[in-house]
Write a structure and sequence with these properties.
Distance between the termini of chain A: 33 Å
Low-confidence stretches of chain A: none
Strand content of chain A: over 45%
Oligomer: heterodimer
Number of helices of chain B: 0
Distance between the termini of chain B: 40 Å
Largest sheet of chain B: 6 strands, mixed
Mean pLDDT of chain A: 91
Mean pLDDT of chain B: 90
Helix content of chain B: under 10%
Low-confidence stretches of chain B: none
Radius of gyration of chain A: 13 Å
Largest sheet of chain A: 7 strands, mixed
Order of helices and strands of chain B: EEEEEEEEEEE
Radius of gyration of chain B: 14 Å
Largest interface: A-B, 30 and 25 residues
């Protein structure tokens, strides 16, 4: 596809369940990012991948959150034992470049809206 | 710490100019960005500016950068109802990371 694809677009789950959110970046993009958008916290960074490694995972809010990326492409964000405060829109972005001096234009997917009941 | 601030709301009449303001904290930021988010959609990059520039113009959009005051603004000329959205400014995080630090977002409402 032409853009960043995220699935599912909506996810409703019960408190305590585990969820997996998927991101398909733009083909050939080496960098991949996860962000979370919630009413109380705005748009916050979670984790960044360069290839399959994660140089910066400083935004993961707790050890219930983890992410992996395989084959330098698809990424999965996993939230274990979900809590109501995890309810948010989870956004994925990809970029053709990495490195701290490049333009780092990030292209975003439409997001996954997670609701924890 | 890293903090990017914006006013929350802006209302303008169709055809007028809109100016959305942003202040950032990291004076070493190399690039600064403006993103647009329409309801139910992801973020769309509108424009960006390199820190050695004072101004960048792209059709109806004008970005002004005041590095001394760490102030960034986005001017939309001839604002249309289709410009109604949330606008985020962003700077690159400090250090060896590619993360973006986003502002709180400004909700622009355009009245006919």
């Amino acid at each position: 596809g032409a853009g960043v694809s995220q699935s599912p677009s909506n996810k409703v789950t019960e408190k305590g369940k585990d969820v997996e959110l998927r991101c398909d970046p733009i083909s050939g993009h080496t960098a991949l990012y996860w962000y979370r958008q919630s009413l109380g916290q705005g748009l916050e960074f979670l984790i960044y991948f360069q290839g399959n490694s994660a140089p910066d995972k400083s935004g993961l809010p707790s050890d219930r959150f983890s992410a992996e990326r395989t084959g330098g492409s698809v990424s999965t964000l996993t939230i274990q034992r979900t809590q109501q405060e995890d309810s948010a829109v989870y956004l994925c972005a990809s970029s053709p470049f990495g490195g701290d001096t490049r333009r780092n234009i990030q292209y975003f997917g439409a997001g996954t809206r997670l609701s924890v009941l | 710490g890293e903090d990017v601030e914006q006013s929350l709301f802006l209302s303008v009449r169709e055809g007028d100019s809109s100016v959305i303001n942003c202040t950032y904290t990291d004076s070493s930021s190399t690039y600064l960005y403006w993103y647009k988010q329409e309801p139910g959609a992801g973020l769309q990059l509108l424009t960006y500016i390199f820190s050695n520039m004072d101004m960048k113009q792209d059709q109806r959009l004008t970005v002004l950068l005041n590095k001394k005051d760490k102030h960034l603004s986005l001017r939309i000329a001839d604002t249309q109802t289709g410009d109604s959205a949330i606008y985020f400014c962003a700077e690159k995080g400090r250090g060896n990371t590619d993360k973006l630090i986003f502002g709180t977002g400004t909700r622009l409402q355009v009245f006919p």
